[in-house]
Write a structure and sequence with these properties.
Blueprint (H helix, E strand, L loop, with lengths): L6 H19 L5 H25 L6 E3 L9 H6 L3 H6 L3 H4 L2 E3 L24 H16 L10 H20 L6 H6 L9 H4 L11 H6 L2 H8 L6 E2 L5 H11 L7 H16 L3 E7 L10 H9 L4 E7 L2
Antiparallel strand pairs: 1-2, 3-5, 4-5
């Protein structure tokens, strides 16, 4: 069999899904991170399923939009005994005449390529239907941070990834001694750490508990005595900037800043991060009431905001 032609693309999507799954499991559950998790996981699963079909020479994996008078390219397609080889050697203009199977068709047992590797009751059709619905909602309909990919849905899909990984190994999509012996791998053994997904299943998962217990929240709590911000400030973006300034080496790349913002946002959302306001001429830790804040603002007194972590 020729090189598995979808694996490079599938691995990149899978690795991204792993990254966002790990972010969410630590409570960094912004809408953007949720969307990226669903998008990349859906993409990866679809590509792996199609790769299994290609390996099995299952011609249902694709159809043809335009056929000439001689019945081409449909005729040569159905006569092919190695679909990986067929598509990898197809001219671009001919390949563009094909369309691939849609994800929704995998939701029927008769067309679910992993059924051959697991008992029927473990074909994960309910979880795959959930993934497809969330992908459809994320792409085509109204969603909010509060209702999209809730605690239970994330737990289900995280555990689905755990279950799918050994199935994909069995299907020779990831490294194994047998896959290497057969020459079926796109990557070598050194890339295993990047693509393997071996985790403990989640049980009774809550984003709130996860963000309360992660290391970044502990760091924010430990530096609370060092930081105050001028004005009445509760915006997560401004506090992210303040925390970033407290340790520029720790937050020198874009991803670390994104996670810092996500952490501040979630702590604010769950009221774990609480803000306290003080007037400059009354900076004796007497917290201002709403009325005092108004009077202080009218007098143009300098106001400061501090915070505390309630865990």
């Amino acid at each position: 069999m020729a090189k598995q032609i979808l694996l490079e693309n599938a691995y990149e999507a899978w690795c991204c899904a792993i990254k966002y799954a790990d972010f969410l499991s630590q409570g960094y559950a912004t809408l953007n991170i949720k969307k990226m998790f669903i998008s990349t996981l859906h993409n990866a699963v679809e590509l792996f399923f199609k790769q299994i079909m290609l390996n099995n020479n299952d011609h249902r994996v694709a159809g043809v939009k335009h056929v000439d008078a001689a019945g081409e390219p449909l005729k040569s397609y159905y006569n092919s005994s190695d679909l990986n080889d067929y598509f990898s050697n197809l001219p671009t203009d001919i390949r563009k005449k094909f369309y691939s199977i849609e994800f929704k068709e995998f939701l029927e047992k008769s067309c679910n390529p992993i059924c051959q590797y697991v008992p029927n009751e473990e074909s994960h059709l309910p979880e795959l239907r959930m993934l497809n619905k969330l992908r459809n909602d994320e792409t085509h309909f109204f969603i909010t941070d509060d209702d999209f990919l809730n605690d239970n849905e994330f737990e289900t899909l995280f555990n689905l990834m755990i279950d799918l990984y050994p199935i994909f190994v069995k299907a020779y999509l990831f490294f194994s001694v047998e896959a290497a012996r057969r020459g079926l791998l796109y990557i070598d053994r050194s890339d295993m750490n990047r693509t393997e997904f071996i985790r403990k299943p989640l049980r009774n998962f809550k984003y709130k508990n996860a963000v309360k217990n992660n290391g970044l929240t502990a760091w924010i709590r430990d530096i609370s005595h060092k930081i105050r911000v001028a004005g009445f400030v509760s915006d997560p973006g401004i506090w992210t900037y303040a925390f970033q300034g407290a340790d520029e080496e720790k937050f020198k790349d874009e991803e670390s800043v994104e996670l810092l913002y996500a952490c501040v946002y979630m702590l604010s959302k769950y009221k774990i991060l609480r803000f306290h306001y003080y007037a400059d001429d009354n900076y004796d830790k007497e917290i201002l009431t709403d009325a005092e804040k108004f009077v202080a603002a009218e007098r143009s007194d300098k106001i400061y905001t501090e915070y505390s972590i309630s865990i």
